Amino acid sequence: MIDKTRKIHEKGSDTRNRIRGVLFDMDGTLTVPGALDFAAIKREIGCPPDIPILEYIESRPEWERPSLFAVLERHETEAAENSVPNKGARACLKALRDKGVSLGIITRNSLCSVEKVLRKFDGICKEDFSAIITRETALPKPHPQGVYMAAEKMGVHLQELLVVGDYRFDIMAGKAAGAKTALLINEQESEESPNGPVADLKIGDLRELLNYVG
Ligand SMILES: [Mg+2]
């Protein structure tokens, strides 16, 4: 445990002062995980458990997709309305903003859900984010397209950008774009593929980012 902490600290020191922008995943990162019941959505649209939802919908015939998206959007709207800011998320966002760090959100969710979720963040507004990348804006993670777009909107080089998420797709997208990455390990779950890319940082609370950024 001590060794692991030391390792993270060393990597953190290396990362410090090079990061000028932080790009956050939304569900399970800025918000408490579990609001979106992916298994229930998959059951309802007939998506096999091992296939991501958006990729499954895109694989279906064009005529079928609107009804599948409608199911997804119903679940997402409900989840966004019930969402709760994750531990330390508000404090982290406020502190980074006040340090002048450029902020962004990248999600496989819709812009409508992002707007609903951000209303739960007292003292934070949509305008605090230089980039909000949703599935309407870019190809979904793990594709890196959204990370490239975010960096441009945020006015930072990819090497100065930290992508933070709770799932391997976040790390894959960040790594593929050449950004730094941080994996948030929430209390009840850890989602990192053993064969997937390893994040530069591992954190248990978003406030830990303040040790590495700014
Ligand atoms: Mg997530």
What can you tell me about this protein's structure?
This protein has two domains: 2-32 and 84-211, HAD superfamily/HAD-like (Rossmann fold), CATH 3.40.50.1000; 38-82, no CATH class. 42% of the residues lie in helices and 12% in strands. The chain is built from nine helices and six strands. The protein has a six-stranded parallel beta sheet with strand order 3-2-1-4-5-6, with helices on both faces. α7 (111-118) links the parallel β2 and β3 (131-133). α5 (65-82) runs parallel beside α7 (111-118). The two termini are 26 Å apart. The site of magnesium ion has 7 residues, from α2. Residues 25, 27-29, 165-167 line the site of magnesium ion.
Task: Briefly say what this structure is.
By secondary structure, this protein is an alpha/beta fold.
Architecture per CATH nomenclature, i.e. the level-2 architecture of the largest domain: 3-Layer(aba) Sandwich
Q: What characterizes the major β-sheet?
A: 6 strands, parallel
CATH superfamily of the largest domain: HAD superfamily/HAD-like
Mean pLDDT: 90
Helical content (DSSP H or I, runs of 4+): 40-55%
Distance between the termini: 26 Å
**Assembly state of the chains shown:** single chain
Tally of structural domains:
2
Cα gyration radius (Å): 17 Å
**Count of distinct strands:** 6
Determine and state the CATH class of the largest domain.
Alpha Beta
Ligands and ions found: magnesium ion
Q: How do the strands of the widest beta sheet line up side by side? A: 3-2-1-4-5-6
Strand content: 5-15%
Structural class: alpha/beta
